[in-house]
UniProtKB/TrEMBL annotation:
It comes from the Bacteria. This is Dihydropyrimidinase. The keyword Hydrolase applies. Belongs to the metallo-dependent hydrolases superfamily. Hydantoinase/dihydropyrimidinase family. The gene is hydA. Its EC number is 3.5.2.2. One of its GO terms (molecular function) is dihydropyrimidinase activity. Its cofactor is Zn(2+). The keyword Cytoplasm does not apply. Pfam families: Amidohydro_1.
Length: 461
């Protein structure tokens, strides 16, 4: 008894072709033309629709304790929003408490993630590098947590210094791990933040002003230099500015191994949003901040030219009422982050493919294939191949919608993309061969997501 998807247009990072897919259990067993059906088979007619690999979002923060509160989507609501929006696999960040074992952090995240309805992995954040942490890193990699994040910002909270970053690069690298960085100069940010607060400049706009693009550019260049010195690649998370991108380009030109990720907010939103009256700008307070309008097309060009290989979300939502408003009267207390995991796939299709900024195949690459390859999930995840997991999005290019807070799947009271029109939507989504979304409606199983341990070999460009 197989499931057969008939007459779809199959799209991968390399090819677009007409074909059928035969799914047996959790995997794709056959790809071909006119695959015969048996009496007991289930058939999904994909005529007029695209068949994409399920999206892979390698940057989420579900149920994250942060800035005195907890991000508003837990693993259930967040992963449900993800899968309804075409993302079938995500990688969330374990952020261990200082002074506590990494393993304890990992166990805590595993417990929280048990209710996920999409498949998932974890990155491990290193918020201090001690002898105990150094000793634990190989064991963490052995458990399939093969990537690490160091923060060059959030001074006195998560920020590590250059010596610590060098040590993580060396230790993780020796054991096959990939290191990523939040590349902003935390000392510049801390200095400007103190200065603005002293001058009674307390509105959300000053969050943006305290995070100048030069703070990103400086940290991007420093991180690449340190990684190069150790002889390891570096992955830059949530690249936000043309200035940072220029540093990536220069490094690639001199042969450095740098991988860059951006997010829909840096491609589609701009810093005028911080300058709205009242506290409205708090909805867009995130780190790094969104940038002036002229940065946006430069980042799209960076995707097209291959300098940016991944579009993730940095999904980290906080309610406007009851969470963001903790920072009324002091922008430095506004919890950083926005909801986006359910919007990424659709926004990239509409504003990338439909508006002709990127090709259909580049779209699949940046939302699914490249992140799966880079983080050791491929070929199980991220493409449409015989033997791969049947994580598939049957996508109706004719369907339309508008993003609104009221109709979103995120568990939060506003949308950063309010009013954005969408052309093309997931119609049916399969997770390992099971229908999780049918005609746009969620029909998945509680706790249907699975932890995917990753291999340490995924350091591809
Ligand atoms: O504003 C953000 N990005 N919040 C989440 C934490 C991070 O820096 O990734
Ligand atoms: Zn970050
Ligand atoms: Zn993040």
């Amino acid at each position: 008894m197989a499931l057969i998807i008939k007459n779809g247009t199959i799209v991968t990072a390399k090819d677009t072709y007409q074909g059928d897919l035969l799914i047996n259990g959790e995997r794709i067993e056959l790809i071909g033309l006119n695959i015969p059906t048996a009496e007991n088979d289930t058939v999904i007619d994909a005529t007029g629709k695209y068949v994409f690999p399920g999206g892979v979002d390698v940057h989420t923060h579900f149920e994250l304790p942060f800035m005195g509160t907890v991000s508003a989507d837990d693993f259930e609501t967040g992963s449900r929003a993800a899968i309804c929006g075409g993302t079938t696999t995500f990688i969330d960040f374990v952020i261990p408490e200082k002074g506590k074992p990494l393993q304890q952090g990992l166990q805590s995240w595993k417990q929280k993630a048990a209710k996920a309805v999409a498949d998932y992995g974890f990155h491990m954040a290193i918020v201090e590098y001690t002898a105990a942490v150094a000793e634990e890193i190989p064991a963490i990699i052995e458990q399939g947590i093969t990537s690490f994040k160091c923060f060059m910002a959030y001074k006195n909270v998560f920020q590590v210094d250059d010596g610590q970053l060098l040590a993580v690069l060396k230790n993780a690298g020796q054991h096959g791990g990939l290191v990523s960085v939040h590349a902003e100069n935390g000392d510049i940010i801390a200095m400007l933040t103190q200065q603005f607060l002293k001058e009674n400049k307390v509105t959300p706009k000053y969050h943006w002003r305290a995070h100048p693009a030069i703070a990103e550019a400086e940290a991007v260049e420093r991180a690449i230099t340190l990684a190069d010195f150790i002889g390891q690649p570096i992955y830059i998370v949530h690249l936000s500015s043309a200035d940072g991108l220029e540093k990536v380009k220069a490094a690639v030109a001199r042969g450095a191994h740098v991988i860059a990720e951006t997010c829909p907010q840096y491609l589609l939103l701009h810093s005028d949003l911080y300058c709205q009256p009242g506290f409205e700008g708090a909805k867009y307070v995130m780190s790094p901040p969104i940038r002036p309008k002229d940065h946006l097309e430069k980042l799209w060009a960076g995707i097209n030219k291959g300098y940016i290989q991944v579009v993730a979300t940095d999904h980290c939502p906080f309610n406007f009422s009851g969470q963001k408003d903790m920072g009324e009267g002091d922008f430095s207390r506004i919890p950083n982050g926005i909801p986006a995991v359910g919007d990424r796939f659709n926004l990239l299709y509409t504003y990338g493919v439909v508006q002709k900024r990127i090709s259909l195949n580049r779209f699949v690459d940046v939302v699914a294939t490249a992140p799966a390859k880079i983080f050791g999930l491929y070929p199980k995840k991220g493409s449409i191949v015989v033997g791969g997991d049947a994580d598939l999005v049957i996508f109706d290019p004719k369907a339309t919608a508008k993003i609104t807070a009221e109709h979103q799947n995120h568990n939060v009271d506003y949308s950063a993309f309010e009013g954005f029109a969408l052309k093309g939507l997931p119609h049916t989504v399969l997770l390992r061969g099971k229908v999780a979304v049918r005609e746009g409606i969620y029909v998945g199983e509680p706790g249907g997501g699975k932890f995917i341990p990753r291999t340490a070999s995924g350091k591809e460009m």
